[in-house]
Amino acid sequence: MNMKKWSTMGLAASMVLVAAGCGKTAAPAETTKPAASTAPAATAAASAAPTAAAAKKLTGDFEIQYFVGGYGDKWWKKVIADFQAANPDLKIKESAGPKINEQMKPRWIAGNPPDFVYIDGPELFDRQMVTDGQLEDLTDWIKDAKNVDGDKIIDLLAQKPQEFDGKIYNVPFVMSSWGIFYDKALFKEKAWAEPKDFEDFLAVSDKIKAAGINPFIHTGKYPYYINGAVLLPAIVSANNNDYKLLQDMSTNNLEAWKNPAIIKGLNKIVQLRDKGFIDKASVQINHTDSQSLFLQHKDAFIPNGLWLPNEMAKDVPASFDFGFIPSITQDKGGKVVANTSTSTFAIAKKAKNKDAAKAFMQFVFSKTQASQWAELSGAPSNIKGDISSSKAPNFVKDAAKFLSSPDTVVVPTVSFAADVDKAMQDASVALTIGTITPEEWVKRVTDVVAKQKK
Predict the structure, then answer these.
(1) 115, 356 in Cβ contact below 8 A?
(2) Which of 9, 10, 5 minimizes the C-alpha distance to 382?
(3) 437, exposed or middle or buried, with CB in 10 Å at 0-12, 13-18, 19+?
(4) Is 179-304+417-453 in the same CATH topology as 5-176+341-394?
(5) What's residue 405's pLDDT?
(6) Strand partners, 171
(7) Residue 256: enclosing H or E segment and its boundaries?
(8) Please, which of 56, 70, 112, 233 could form a disulfide with 327 given CB 3.0 to 4.6 Å?
(9) In 3-state terms, what secondary structure has residue 372?
(10) Nearest to residue 22, comparing CAs of 228, 338, 310?
């Protein structure tokens, strides 16, 4: 898929900001019945309007697993309450929390998974789940599946489902763009220019460093932040703006891993390292610690996802004005690269109540629920046109502007096998502190890719 008009306009219209990061949340929870909905009766009734999707009476047990991250669980509580009201004979169990993926892992391995799963947060990798045969094949079903309003789900999506060997196993409900954040207010005060390319980024970082501020901090304990926001866009730029290379890499194509664009992309990180622009604290801290230092102006730039402002809402200074740039590694005159990531919904292959799981999928992919997601999470969904850009915060408008520009390469979500992704993360940390070279980074990762091929 190349840069189609529907992609950029659809993404700009819906501008999905997913809670892919881990937030400050309550302890993991398991409940059998959600609290009654606090929404007006008319809203709940609209959500539960009878359609072909709800024609079949749903009974029995139905378990939903969802990760609670930066956007909390208000939407989940609401949508589950609405679904329960529409299906009173269904016994719904929520398995949720910030560590739920880790806690549920033994059940997935043992073949006793929940029925419905939200694939987001640590410990869940869609490609690995597909490889391990854990997810239901939705290819034929999703082609014609309609939501509770009678609209075809596939036609409502700003970003279409990723395919694994031509098959669809999960459907994106929320989406984020990786990128680089900075404080517009600070930059205005210091008369620093927003970088348009890598040359600009290096130049302004020199000024930032001279002012006694670290130019760049990342999340050393979760290196997929720097990979998603810096490395992968750099590889796409070095590959003449063609993101198919990333897709080939994700399928463990060893020839793809020999492409010189990977070394070129890695060398952008090396330049940041060798110029002393990377905060040395990065290697040992988690996402909230790095974000806190950024908000305190100890660091000027941070690679992150669009969930950052909401995740840190309680700690954001009143004067802080989030600026967002999808990529900073393109050469002078090069296109911006927006590396998107989605969080998806899936049904377990060994689900005990697939009827309820499919009905819930049809229920959540409605414009009503997309609107409620925007209201309760503070971010829009992957359903086209679910919020007005006039109500969006400034950084959302910035992101939407980039995503609708013909000068932006929008990269569809690319996911790697769990072992390969882990190898990439570990190697990137080592690269940032100078213990390995770009060539050694590639060797480390391709050794793991080769094992995956066996």
Answers:
(1) yes
(2) 10
(3) middle
(4) yes
(5) 83
(6) 345
(7) none
(8) 233
(9) helix
(10) 310
Any idea where the domains of the chain sit in the sequence? 5-176+341-394, 179-304+417-453
CA distances from 3 to 24, 178, 329 (A): 36, 17, 19
Phi/psi at 157 (5° precision): -80, 130
Give Cα 6 to chain centroid, integer Å.
20
Where on the phi/psi map is residue 128: left (φ > 0), alpha (ψ -120 to 50), or beta?
Answer: alpha
Cβ proximity of 342 and 174 under 8 Å: yes
Residue with tokens 């091929």: 453
Q: Closest Cα to residue 321, out of 386, 397, 387?
A: 397
Whether the full predicted model's pTM is greater than 0.70, yes or no, is yes
pLDDT at 36 over 60: no
Q: Which residues contact 255 (CB under 8 A, 6 or more apart)?
A: 248
Over residues 349-364, the mean pLDDT reads 98
404 beta partners? none
Q: State the amino acid at position 283 in one-letter form.
A: V
Considering only the C-alpha atoms of the chain, give the largest distance between any 2 of them, rounded to a whole number of Å: 67
CATH superfamily membership of 179-304+417-453: Periplasmic binding protein-like II (3.40.190.10)
Distance CA 241, CA 237 (A): 5
Placement of tokens 């590959």 in the chain? 239
Neighbours of 191 (CB within 10 A): 7
- Edge to edge, the sheet with strand 299-304 lists 214-216, 299-304, 179-183, 322-325
C-alpha Rg value of the chain to the nearest Å: 22
Measured from the Cβ of residue 167, the count of other Cβ atoms closer than 10 Å reads 13
Nearest to 48 by CA among 82, 77, 22: 82
| Among the four given CATH numbers 3.40.190.10, 3.40.50.300, 1.10.260.40, 3.90.420.10, the one describing domain 5-176+341-394 | 3.40.190.10
What is the Cα–Cα distance from 326 to 410, expressed in whole angstroms? 10
Across the strands, what pairs with 278? 216
**What average pLDDT does the structure give for the chain?**
86
Instruction: Check residue 50 and give its pLDDT.
Output: 40
Mean pLDDT, residues 399-421: 87
Sequence-ordered strand ranges (E) for 98-212: 116-119, 170-177, 179-183
